[in-house]
């Protein structure tokens, strides 16, 4: 974040840094991918939006992961390995269902010329994504 040292930073979090003249956006940031740092002058930004990606497919997959351990337990009722495997599937299914229901917070920046860049985070990063988009949107109105 070299170019912002002489400028006042408005906000800095997991999605990037906003200053008076430019935005350092951690674009292409996903749940399991490392972000690339992109410096965007404020003048080139047309719009910014925040939304939560929710997936019915992931939610259904998670619900199946919650139901599957009970089916495994009924079929292999005496097996300790089946109970341990069922517990692992139950935990993973609950986690996947949480991701599908809670949604994945995403910040999308549209630059001049219609170029779109985005960054996503974990459900716990929702407040940071929302704050980043809100501060940038307010700064664009000035």
Report the sheet with the most strands, covering strand number, pairing sense and barrel closure: 4 strands, antiparallel
Strand content: 25-35%
The amount of helix comes to 40-55%
CATH class of the largest domain: Mainly Beta
Going by CATH, what is the homologous superfamily of the largest domain? Pleckstrin-homology domain (PH domain)/Phosphotyrosine-binding domain (PTB)
Strand order of the largest sheet: 1-2-3-4
Terminal Cα separation, in Å?
Answer: 23 Å
Number of helices: 3
Mean pLDDT, to the nearest integer, reads 85
Secondary-structure content class? alpha+beta
CATH architecture of the largest domain: Roll
Q: Globular, elongated, flat, extended or rod-shaped: what is the shape?
A: elongated
Radius of gyration, whole Å? 21 Å
- What name is given to the CATH topology of the largest domain? PH-domain like
What ranges have pLDDT less than 50 throughout 5 or more consecutive residues?
Answer: none
Number of strands: 7
Count of distinct structural domains: 2
Topology pattern, helix = H, strand = E? EEEEEHHEEH
Any overview of this molecule?
The structure is a single chain. The protein has three helices and seven strands; from the N terminus they run βββββααββα. The chain is α+β, with helices and mostly antiparallel strands and 142 residues long. It has two domains: 2-51 and 103-141, Roll (PH-domain like); 56-101. The strands form two sheets. The chain has a four-stranded antiparallel β-sheet, with helices on one face. Strands 5-6-7 form a three-stranded antiparallel β-sheet.
């Amino acid at each position: 974040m070299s170019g912002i040292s002489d400028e006042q930073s408005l906000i800095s979090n997991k999605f990037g840094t906003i200053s008076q003249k430019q935005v350092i956006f951690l674009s292409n940031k996903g749940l399991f991918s490392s972000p690339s740092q992109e410096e965007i002058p404020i003048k080139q930004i047309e719009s910014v939006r925040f939304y939560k990606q929710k997936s019915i497919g992931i939610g259904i997959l998670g619900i199946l992961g919650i139901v599957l351990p009970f089916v495994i337990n009924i079929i292999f009722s005496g097996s300790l390995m089946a109970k341990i495997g069922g517990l692992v599937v139950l935990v993973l299914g609950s986690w996947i269902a949480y991701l599908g229901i809670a949604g994945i917070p995403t910040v999308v920046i549209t630059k001049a010329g219609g170029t779109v860049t985005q960054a996503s985070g974990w459900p716990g990063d929702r407040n940071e994504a929302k704050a980043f988009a809100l501060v940038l949107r307010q700064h664009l109105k000035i």
